[in-house]
Amino acid sequence: MAGNFSFDQLKKAVSSGEVDTVLACIVDLQGRLAGKRFLAQYFVDTAHDETHGCNYLLAADIDMEPVPGYKAASWSKGYGDFVMKPDLSTLRRIPWLEKTALVICDVLDHHSHDDLPHSPRAILKKQVKRLAERGYVGYFASELEFYLFSETYDSARKKHWQGLDTASPYIGDYQIGITTKEEGVMRRLRNEMQAAGIPIENSKGEWGPGQEEINVRYAEALEMADRHVILKNGAKEIAESEGKAVSFMAKYNYGLAGNSSHIHNSLWSADGQTPLFYDRQAEWTLSTLGQQWAAGQLKYAREFTWFLAPYVNSYKRFQAGTFAPTKIMWSEDNRTAGFRLCGEGTKGIRMECRIGGADLNPYLAFAALIAAGLAGIDEKLELQKPFVGDAYQASQLPEIPKTLRDATETLAKSEMLKQALGDGVLEHYIHTARWEQFEYDRRITDWELHRGFERY
To answer: Locate the GS catalytic domain: which residues (predicted)?
Structure first.
């Protein structure tokens, strides 16, 4: 069950006054929740069927600037409406907001009422359907890392995001004593996410001062993506209510560990009962299907890297000796690898993609991994032998794209993604990537001013 609150339960809660607000949210290109706050009674009476939003929301950059050049939406087309269709299976109570429920909406064409092909949720739904047609269900889990600051967003802004006080002054990776100091936010995050129908396994300190990791129990791909975006949004809201701030930037500080979003993925039977990657007789106990799936992800990793690292900042995380990968290869339980086999010898055997940063859009990332995995199955690819050793020092291994520009041009040449996602959809996101690069290229950074104001 995706949510934890049926529509009948919502109606009763509205009648009793327990809920007075419903958030109807779509997911934008950046993986953020966008939408409307409804008077709950109106939502129950009318808006649960559908509402509308401006189609520029899927043609805007992270600053909410309408981006020129999209075919799907533009000034010349008048930036009309699209339909926001609540998926009532995602309805849930939001414990950290007073008397509030939330529902995720699909984005539909205003005229045909078909899924808008370039909306992130529709892109993932298409790939999930491809799995279902073959009798598979994809189970995914994304680990999210973030920095917790003893700052508010206002105080961080006034400091120009420099010299910020982290929740702990030194690295507390796995250390219980230091993370106890961070429990004001983290305990609420674990418990209130659980109460919102997002099952939390654990949280822990990570390899940076004030850096946290929170693990959500695996789920079917679409449900896991929904959990991911609600968790990110909720983490910010809970932290802010505690006078703190969190950041999911891939690399907020050159000298500190980056924030990743490792993605665990595997295939199961359509009824969700039989693991299709587990074969105790196979090499690495990974079935032929699992090996082909992994081989596809390895073959096409450079082509879909943008879906795991969508910003200029994303590529600053890929540094040797930081637990972030720099090479495209797989290994058995090796954290220098781009892909790591986990759960070997058990029904939980799965591939962990370690390339993605916490700034990724999970719908796009999951869709790309599914598309590449299916390509590996269709092409009956053979999985190479696992790498052993320090991948950072292995110069012969293929590299993850080093820059957004490199990843964008590699994405633009991908015939596999063009076939899997559709020409128009891929073009939409290539344009998104090129706009991000264009915006960066014309801006003057603090680093340039520091180096060149006096010295040039």
So the answer is: 120-456
| 232 Cβ neighbours under 8 A, 6+ residues apart | 31, 32, 144, 248
| Residues 416-435, mean pLDDT to the nearest whole number | 98
DSSP 8-state assignment for residue 333: S
Residue 7 amino acid letter:
F
* Exposed e or buried b per residue across 112-147, where buried means at least 16 C-beta atoms within 10 angstroms of its C-beta: eeebbbbbbbbbbbbbbebbeeeebbbbbbbbbbbb
Confidence of residue 1 (pLDDT cuts 50, 70, 90): very low
Alpha carbon 449 to chain centroid distance? 33
3-state SS, residue 35: strand
Give the type of residue at 120.
P
Residue 251 to residue 29: CA distance in whole angstroms: 20
* Contact call for residues 71 and 102 (beta carbons, < 8 A): no
Two tokens, residue 131 = 């799995």
Mention every residue, 6+ apart, whose C-beta is less than 8 A from residue 147: 166, 208, 210, 211, 212, 246, 247, 249, 252, 259
Q: How far apart are CA 365 and CA 218, in angstroms?
A: 15
- CA–CA separation, 130 and 171 (whole Å): 43
Q: How many residues does the chain have?
A: 456
CB proximity list for 421: less than 8 A, separation 6 or greater: 123, 126, 367, 371
Q: Where are the beta strands (DSSP E) in 270-398?
A: 330-332, 339-342, 350-353
Look up tokens 């205003």; give the residue. 110
What confidence tens digit (pLDDT) does each residue in 214-271 have?
999 999 999 999 999 999 999 999 999 999 999 999 999 999 999 999 999 999 999 9
Contact present, 173 and 264 (Cβ < 8 Å): no
The DSSP result for 235-269, as a single string, is: HHHHHHHTT-EEE--S-S-TTSPPPB--EEEEEEE
Distance from C-alpha of 109 to C-alpha of 117, rounded to nearest angstrom: 9
Ranking 205-209, 297-301, 308-312 by mean pLDDT, the lowest is 205-209
